[in-house]
Write a structure and sequence with these properties.
NagB/RpiA_transferase-like; Glc/Gal-6P_isomerase; carbohydrate metabolism; seven-stranded parallel β-sheet; EC 3.5.99.6; 30% helix; three-stranded antiparallel β-sheet; globular; alpha/beta; hydrolase; Rossmann fold
């Protein structure tokens, strides 16, 4: 894993945006894997600003999101469909029909999981996946204990995840207890991954990722087995890590 150390959230977002914009310009048909949560909001803001200023075009780009809550329709402001529309898609020139998220209200959710993986495979896979990390090491909504062989699946959210995400809801009781998420194996198929990590709340997780072993008890640890991962982390997130410049490996 390559590590880019940055000062703060702003610099992390700018660095990530610079990379994404460059890749979109080089490959206008790039297939992007996208994440939700607080972490990528700054990145999306910068993609929008650049689109408005420099006219970087997403007309031929296709996108695939990691996850969606079970039971929330796309018009629910807490759904990830809504988040993506309002945080990014409505503000750039990507075609609505080229944006994909798992459908958390599908009648047959198991079929939906299979459909999602097959669709991504059929379209040639994800070129660049943007990832965040949960405080417990989850990626997508794959909580500790998830099989590294997992494909897109329905998962029960950990209590800590429900608590962390409750800030977006009126009350913790409104947070769905289940989600549909790309599995670990689905995520690992991406040709390239950028992991964004910011803030002291993620410092323990980042330390565990960099210093810890590869174990299903810490889902993000599988990223060490991927050939092309770049972590962009800020000083607060790195506060518990002793790293050599540019390298996130222990050796
Ligand atoms: N399912 C999402 C993840 O994709 C995200 O990376 C993570 C961290 O969220 P945040 O960026 O808000 O800290 O948890 C959420 O529950």
């Amino acid at each position: 894993m390559k590590l880019i150390q940055v000062k703060d959230y702003q610099e992390m977002s700018q660095k990530a945006a610079d990379i994404v914009i460059e890749k979109v310009k080089t490959n206008p048909q790039i297939q992007l894997g996208l994440a939700t949560g607080g972490t990528p909001e700054g990145l999306y803001d910068r993609l929008i600003a650049d689109h408005k200023e420099n006219h970087t075009s997403y007309e031929q780009v296709k996108s695939f999101n990691l996850d969606e809550y079970i039971g929330l329709s796309s018009t629910n402001p807490n759904s990830y469909h809504y988040y993506m529309a309002h945080t990014l898609f409505n503000h750039i020139d990507i075609n609505q029909e080229d944006t994909n998220l798992p459908n958390g209200t599908a009648e047959n959710i198991q079929e939906e999981c299979v459909r999602y993986d097959e669709m991504i495979d059929k379209m040639g896979g994800i070129d660049l996946q943007i990832l965040g990390i949960g405080q417990n090491g989850h990626i997508g909504f794959n909580e500790p204990g998830t099989s590294f062989a997992s494909k897109t699946q329905v998962v029960d959210l950990a209590q800590s995840t429900i608590e962390a995400n409750a800030r977006y809801f009126n009350s913790i009781d409104e947070v769905p207890t289940q989600a549909v998420t790309m599995g670990i194996a689905s995520i690992m198929k991406s040709k390239e991954i950028i992991l964004l990590v910011s803030g002291v709340a993620k410092s323990e997780a980042l330390k565990q990722l960099i210093d810890g072993d590869i174990t299903e008890e810490f889902p993000a640890s599988i990223l060490k087995n991927h050939q092309n991962v770049t972590i962009i982390a800020d000083q607060d997130a790195l506060s518990k890590v002793h790293v050599q410049r540019g390298s996130a490996s222990r050796d």
